[in-house]
Amino acid sequence: SVKELKNSLDRSYKKKKIAVMTSGGDSPGMNAAIRAVVRTGIHFGCDVYAVYEGYEGLLKGGKYLRQMQWEDVRGWLSEGGTLIGTARCNEFREHWGRKQAAYNLISEGIDALVVCGGDGSLTGADLFRSEWPTLVEELVKDGTFTADRVEPYRNLTMVGLIGSIDNDMAGSDSTIGAFSALGRICELVDYIDATAKSHSRAFVVEVMGRHCGWLALLAGIATGADYIFIPERAAPKDKWQSELKEVCQRHRQKGRRNNTVIVAEGALDNELNHISADDVKNVLVELGLDAKVTILGHVQRGGTAVAHDRLLATLQGVDAVKAVLEMTPETPSPLIGILENKIIRKPLMESVELTKSVATDIKNKDFDKAIMLRDTEFMELYDIFVSTTIKDDGSEMLPVTQRLNIGIVHVGAPSAALNPATRAATLYCLSRGHKPFAIMNGFSGLIQTGQMRELSWNDVENWHNLGGSVIGTNRSLADADMGTVAYYFQKNKLDGLIILGGFEGFKSLKELRDNRERYPVFNIPMVLIPATISNNVPGTEYSLGVDTCLNALVKYTDDIKQSASATRRRVFVVEVQGGHSGFIASFTGLVTGAVSVYAPEDQINLAAIKEDLELLCENFRHDKGENNNGKLLIRNEQASNIYSTKLLADVIAESSKGNFGVRTAIPGHAQQGGMPSSKDRVIASRYAVKCVNFLEEWNEKNKGVDADTKVLRFQYDVHGEKRPTVQHEDDSAAVICVNGSKVSFKPIAKLWENETNVELRKGEDIHWKEFTHIGDILSGRLRLRAEV
Ligand code: ATP
């Protein structure tokens, strides 16, 4: 009913006047955040203002505070930087400046402020809020306002969003813009790699990060760098030079043709002396290398936001408005952050203080504490970098009895991060003294040729940025000939298996585990790293390759929207992959500002299409021409047996009565995305190392020990050697999963039983459900319904 539809707008909150601003250094994704704040605010019945030019605009007031309408933010998702401007403003550091800002806000009747910026901006925001009652009191005392006039403004509602490419805020895994900057860095280092290899050169690349090494660390992992310099792990004075030389030389001896060293702008030695890119270069020159310096500079900030940042900014912008509406005067100002996959709220003040204490810890040379205060992954990623590069000198090898033969197999359609994951697993195995074996061309390759290739450092060294699968992948499952698979497992004395793949990989793991009683050789720990662009592996919210695919789709849709803006009044029905899972479609819809998403989880029917048509007409009615940059409808390939992409386009075109043209666009295999994205490369490394640790733990801690009797169990291998085994029914066959803010290993048997929709080849949990609701808010669908 109309009443129900009206309720969907949820106007139960007290109406607020919300101002949104960006401050400090610009970062890609800020526009997506502003768009989300503006539209969500309007959706909930609030007036939303943009503060132009950061705190400077807050001080100046007047035309710098502009009310935003729904249409004003159309097309902003694809724009880099910040369209409302940003600035550094020294006057805001002064009490009088903040008093002036308070005057301007009260004059406009604004009672809530959403600030998107780095730690400096948020420190200013926090100070402003805590000082607010005093500022208001002063404005009454000096006769600027009457007490009655300021009564509704006794408290300022303040919410912080972290817009910063540095990713330096404590309590959040990533900040708006950080992954875009990382993506840019990796793209550029990839280019440098090609020329460096040609000339057999060493390159020292300086990246941004005055106080934070996140960009340098992640770029180090993602670009396969030899060495990194970051402020939180200060290099030992007078010693780093020899270690750097040793590492680069060792890698050359192993066969590497180039060297890459990433230096954070704020790199330090442990006596707090700055280490510059030139200092590093000079050391490499001493080694006899042809070394060059590249300082990436402001290109790192530029360009449009990657898919990750568009989503992060959108979800956080929506949550910022919800926080504004839910807060009471007693609620401490929140900072909206993210942990793994979950949007969280943290007390703004605490996070800012923690962030600042990192700088203090560095100043006090307490580097261990500094690194601990970074996000949850930082330390782990640092250890991963060290153990796969600096410590690949044999110093981290396990005792001979604990060294394993580890098989690695790719199953199913390729996704972008198969090679980086295999590389990281291999490098980590080699550092630990294990032998990594690539099962060539999937299980059918093994069955047909028996080929298992022992991988060397040199084999995998440059796989960090390769898409596809060097060792080959195949859709066939192990059950095509389980006996033969078992034979080759035994022949190569595998102690553990890493499977990389999507639903086929998932099924293979289940089959291998189910066949343990028949083939005791499968009594080894086995683990699946979900890797598929469909993101349909049960139990997890993320599969490798998804980020690359989403970036490819964002680029693709940006391009076709551009083409539509030239021809005007054009709608594209874009068909995306995902099998029976609507994740990719829903995500793409949200980060490209699609008018509608057709996912397999929803029914496409005539009523839905009719509503889409109304929304399209409404959209075109309000378009001002110049920002008429094409409308998108995203359809998952399996969304309906009847309403094909073509039929949908035809129906909409026919009903548009010539109002607009409709085209279909099918990116097909381009969705695999070529080179893996920086985020996929980093997650690939993280999961690969975690999985090798999982295999080690099951081989050591739990090996052959019967849970009840504590008696060791053995089996005899093909050479007649007695080998301890894991047990069929234990949890040693598992999938590495991320759920909300938690990464864990889930046993395949339980996953299969409780979380799998076998028929539709996906998980039961639709973890992206909220995308649909948020998409409906931001596309204006819910407003339209309420106006019916
Ligand atoms: P980036 O991460 O790019 O450095 P940032 O937000 O940390 O971004 P800053 O230059 O530190 O950038 O701060 C931006 C603005 O925030 C300053 O120009 C100033 O107006 C305000 N600001 C920063 N620190 C304070 C403070 N302690 N008190 C009041 N205002 C501040």
From TrEMBL:
Cellular component aspect of the GO annotation: 6-phosphofructokinase complex; mitochondrion
GO BP annotations listed: canonical glycolysis; fructose 1,6-bisphosphate metabolic process; fructose 6-phosphate metabolic process; intracellular chemical homeostasis
Activity control: Allosterically activated by ADP, AMP, or fructose 2,6-bisphosphate, and allosterically inhibited by ATP or citrate.
GO molecular function: 6-phosphofructokinase activity; AMP binding; ATP binding; fructose-6-phosphate binding; identical protein binding; metal ion binding; monosaccharide binding
Interdomain linker as annotated region, ranges: 391-404
Cellular localisation: Cytoplasm
Enzyme Commission number(s) of this protein: 2.7.1.11
Keyword Phosphoprotein among UniProt keywords: no
Keywords, in A-Z order: Allosteric enzyme, ATP-binding, Cytoplasm, Glycolysis, Kinase, Magnesium, Metal-binding, Nucleotide-binding, Transferase
Residues noted as binding beta-D-fructose 2,6-bisphosphate in the record, renumbered to the chain: 475, 532-536, 570, 577-579, 637, 663, 669-672, 761
Reaction catalysed by this enzyme: beta-D-fructose 6-phosphate + ATP = beta-D-fructose 1,6-bisphosphate + ADP + H(+)
Main location: cytoplasm
Cofactor(s) this protein cannot do without: Mg(2+)
UniProt pathway annotation: Carbohydrate degradation; glycolysis; D-glyceraldehyde 3-phosphate and glycerone phosphate from D-glucose: step 3/4
Amino-acid positions noted as binding Mg(2+) in the UniProt annotation, renumbered to this chain: D119
Region of interest (N-terminal catalytic PFK domain 1), residue spans: 1-390
Phosphofructokinase domain location: 17-324, 405-695
Sequence positions that bind ATP: G25, R88, C89, G118, D119, G120, S121
Subunit structure of this chain's protein: Heterooctamer of 4 alpha and 4 beta chains.
Task of the protein: Catalyzes the phosphorylation of D-fructose 6-phosphate to fructose 1,6-bisphosphate by ATP, the first committing step of glycolysis.
Annotated family: Belongs to the phosphofructokinase type A (PFKA) family. ATP-dependent PFK group I subfamily. Eukaryotic two domain clade "E" sub-subfamily.
Protein name: ATP-dependent 6-phosphofructokinase
Biological source species: Zygosaccharomyces mellis
Full-protein residues shown: 191 to 978 of 985
